[in-house]
Structure formats: C-alpha cells, structure tokens
Amino acid sequence: MKSFFRKYYTDLFLNKRLFIGLGACVTLFVFSFFMPFLGDLPYFFFGVLLILLCVDLLLLYCTEKAVFLRREIPERLSNGDDNELKIYLENFYAFEVKIGIIDEIPFQFQKRDLWFSTSLAARENKTISYQLKPTKRGEYEFGQTRLYVQSPIGLINRRFNIGVYKTVPVYPSFLKLRQYELLAVSNRLTEIGLKKIRRIGHSMEFDQVKNYVAGDDYRTINWKATARKGDLMVNSYTDEKAQHIYCVIDKSRAMKMPFEGLSLLDYAINASLILSSVALVKEDKAGLITIAEKTGSIVPADRKPTQLNRIMEVLYKEKTRYLETDMEALYMSVRSTLKQRSLVVFFTNFESMSALERQLPFLKRIAKFHLLLVVFFENTTLKALSQEPAADVEGIYIKTIAEKFAYEKKVMVKELAKHGILSLLTAPQDLTVNVVNEYLALKARQRI
Predict the structure, then answer these.
(1) pLDDT tens digit sequence for 352-386
(2) Which of 38, 255, 436, 439 is least enclosed by beta carbons within 10 angstroms?
C-alpha cells in the first residue's frame, strides 16, 4: 500500500489545464441554479473531465520504463570557464510527450531557475546541452534530475527522479590550458593575443644547417656549406632549453580580493598553470612555490610528462589565508630550493606603497640570485572611477582618491625598476596573456 501510494501520489502533479477544467465545471454548476435550461450539462462536462483524467492517468502510468535519461557530467570542471553538460533523453511512450526538466546543480552556482522544456515524439531521443561556469575550486555535488512528463491530454504531470548524487572536483582552468598547449605546439600563440617578439641575436644552441629561405638572417650563412653544396646554406639555432621557471603564488589576504567572480588567487593559479604548460612545451623546467604566513607547497622544477599534473593537483587545494606574507620564509625557501639561476614569477598584490616597502628588502635579495618578475594587479574598479566625469563635490572627491591609488600603482612599477626588479602591472582578466608574453619576451632576449 505504501509503495502504491508513493507510485501514484507523490510523483503525481496537477496541471494548469485540469484546474481550468474544474473551474469551468464549478462555473456551470453555479449558472445551472439560475439557468434551469442548462439541465445536465454541468454533470456531463464534469463526467467528461473525470474520464479524461482517468485516461491521462492510464497513459502516463501504463508502463514502468517510460523515459530514459542520462546526465553527462565531465569528470572534473574547469574553474572560471564555461563547462558543457549534457542531458540525453529518450521517449519509450507510444505517443508524443512534453517534458519539463529540473537539474539539481550544486548550490555554489546559486541558480534556482534551471528549467528546460522540450517535447519528444514516440521513440524519439534528444540531447539538451547547457553550460556552467564555476568560480571557486573545490568539490561540487550534483543532485538528481527530475523529469515532469505530460501526455497529449495534459491534465497531470508524472514526475521521474533519475540519477544519483555525484561529487565533481573543480580544478584550475585546464580548458584554457589545453588551448594554450595546442597553440604553443603549433606556434600560433598570436591568435589569443600573444605578441611576436623580435629576437636580438640568437641563442648559442646550434640546431642544424639548412637551405636559405627568404627571411632568414643573412648573418647566419654558413659559407663553407654553401661552397660545398652550391646553394646558400644557413645555420639554424634553437632556444636554450632546460631553464628553470618557478611560479611563486602569494596566498595571503591581499589575494582574496574578487574580480568578476574570481579571486586574485584564482587568477594567479590559472595563469601559473598555463605559464608552466607553455614553459614545458618550450622544453624548460617548471616549478611552483606557494607562500602565506608560512611556506606552503613546493614543487621542484622538472620537465617530466607528469609535472603539469603534479602542479595541478597542488593548485587544486590552495586557498587564501588571512595573514600577511612572511617574505623571510619565502626568501629561505627560494634559496634552499632553487639551486641555479631561474626565472621567478611572483604573483602578489600591493594596494599601497607601504605594502611594497615592507616586502622590498626581501625582493631585492631574491633578485640578486635570480631573475625576478613581480606580477601584481590593477584595481579595475578604481581605474574606472578615475576615468568617469565628476558630477558633484562628492564625485570629485571619489575621482581624486581613485586617481591617487591608480597613480600609486605606477609609482610601484618605477620603484621596483629602480632596484633592478622586473614588474608587470596588469588587469586580472589580462593576466594570463600578459604573463606568457613577458616570459616569451625574456626568453627571446636571452635574459634567462
């Protein structure tokens, strides 16, 4: 009895069409008191409605295997990217049905209106695709998918609860990572905004002697090979390889500031992952250090095929802390881990000149042994305020303060350059392209 109750009641939902029919019946019964000529018409109408309701129940509950659903979720989601999910549907009824779908997505997305409507003919199948964009790393739990099936009569809906609860991890942006990897391998990085860097001279690693083609540097002509072969031959050089590239990520409270749904830490993590990938494609060695009030994770530089997965697994778990960065701990970690001159890309943020001055002594000490690139962020909100025209006295005050902070960021760049430290001031959304551009430029100029 209990299973019967669950089968025929808990998954049964009355449709708007049934309430309209009942309303029409009530109206006819009311009018029949004042209009005797209506006779048995209200009873006839009510009887027809009951018959249609019974037929509708029989149609919807005549078979157990009525519809088939399969939800296709990736094994992991990419943070900050649009991830595609699919719902595959198949109708086993002998008639066309209308279907409403509620997919129970994780609470982190804060979407309570995810509703899909479709119709399926008899034995027809269909795939519904939609996209989700997570903005935090971690574990996301998907619930069940609920189908509301309606027959051509349309008086009631039958609900199907399909699927099981599934936990899916959200990793740093590996979708963009694949895009950068493919373009780096095919030397098409300019398609996503990366610049072509003019080389000054060439590296000292000889590659091969090849035929001259238009555009080759005439200074690389190999005259002895030209004399032997009778055609112009040039020496070909390749980039120096196996250079150490370390991404150092600040996890302190300065990196918790949000921009467009992602924190600065998430932007830094995504950029670090892609920079490491491009460095490995260029046959350099990529490493990682995270730092907050104490040293976090350390991944020594390497170029093994599994190195990128190691870095991704470490970055997946990193979270912002609520204390300031211990720069002395960072300096000691760099000195003990980096055994040769390396490119150290330090992702951090300074909101005031005093914050930079506290860290500057340790940055100078790191720059004595390694090529240090300090990457910090523009406050795009303040920049937009500084460019808006002021309408009143309060607007003038806000605009002046915003311009002061924006100017202070530029002063920080000059202060770092004065001490021989490279710096990159960038908007969060442009971080990845600008960092990879800077790495390729330093490599082209043989700074590392």
Answers:
(1) 899 899 999 999 999 999 999 999 999 888 878 87
(2) 38
